Amino acid sequence: MSVQTLGRTYLGRTSLPARAVQAVRDVYRYRELVRYLVATSLRTENVATVFGFLWWLLDPLLLMLVYTLLMDIILQLGEPNFPLFILAAILPFEFFTRSVRNSMAMTLVKERAMRQVAFPKAVVPLASTFAETAHLLAALALFVVFALPFGVEPSPVTLLVLPVTAVLFLFALGVAFFFSALNVFFRDTNHLTTHGFRFWFYLSPGLYAVSFVPEQYQWWFDINPFTTFFAAFRDTLIYQDVPDMGALAVVAAVSLVVLAGGFLFFVGREPSFAKVD
Question: Nearest 5°: phi and psi at 30?
Answer without folding.
Answer: -100, 30
